[in-house]
Each structure stands twice: as structure tokens, then as C-alpha cells.
Design goal:
Largest sheet: 5 strands, parallel
Shape: globular
Strand content: 5-15%
Radius of gyration: 13 Å
Strand order of the largest sheet: 2-1-3-4-5
Distance between the termini: 6 Å
């Protein structure tokens, strides 16, 4: 799943990952992503940190509470790494993160690595 309020970024990520054979769901905010997670299983989440309705930090807290199996399968994509609060949040949870602008090759490699490390239950893609 890709969670980003910037449609161009979500589309670019989706296109790159679909090229690797992943099925992609796209949500434009954390609240929508939680609804989608309640309806269908996803293997990995790529999420922006700064979004309307439910930002990355609150989205992560809800995922951790409702879908704890996904807490180690969230990758944050952010352009806001200079913020002390954002750095502290990412360090505290230990989630991988990529800085905008990102290298699509790096995104694809990170997704592949996380899904491979997840074992058999994480082999079906991003859905």
C-alpha cells in the first residue's frame, strides 16, 4: 500500500513497484489507509509522514494498535527530515525511511528486502 497525499508521488511509486510485479493499493491519507487495511491484507506500507486528516506518526500508532504484524513493514517517505520531532519519531520506532526526492531504484530495493525478510507471509507483494 502507498499512502501519500501527493498524487504524483503515489503514482510514481505505484508504477515502479507494479513493474516489479506488486499489486498496489493507494490511499491519499492515513485515515483512508486504515479503512483499506481493515478490508484487505497488505504486506507492506510506504507512507508519507506529513498528510492531512491523519499524519504518519498517528497513522503508525493506529497500525501498531490495530495491525501489529505490519509495524515492521512500514517505510516512511518524507521531505520533512529536518524537523527534530520527525527525526525523533523515526529513530524511536526504528522504521526505515527514504528522503524526498527519492531514487526509485533505492525504493524498489528496500521494498524487496523488507518483503524477503518478512518470510512466506510477506511474499505476495504490496497488494
Amino acid at each position: 500500500m502507498i499512502v501519500d497525499d501527493e498524487a504524483d508521488i503515489a503514482a510514481t511509486l505505484a508504477e515502479a513497484l507494479q513493474g516489479d510485479g506488486h499489486q498496489i493499493g493507494i490511499a491519499d491519507n492515513g485515515a483512508m489507509a486504515l479503512e483499506m487495511l481493515a478490508q484487505r491484507a497488505y504486506d507492506l506500507v510506504l507512507s508519507d509522514t506529513k498528510m492531512p486528516k491523519l499524519d504518519g506518526e498517528h497513522f503508525y500508532a493506529e497500525v501498531e494498535r490495530r495491525f501489529p504484524h505490519l509495524r515492521h513493514r512500514i517505510v516512511f517517505v518524507t521531505g520533512d527530515i529536518l524537523s527534530r520531532e520527525k527525526r525523533e519519531f523515526l529513530q524511536r520506532i526504528g522504521a526505515p525511511h527514504l528522503l524526498k526526492p527519492f531514487d526509485l531504484r533505492e525504493v524498489r530495493q528496500l521494498v524487496h528486502r523488507i518483503l524477503a525478510d518478512a518470510g512466506p507471509e510477506g511474499t505476495s507483494g504490496l497488494h
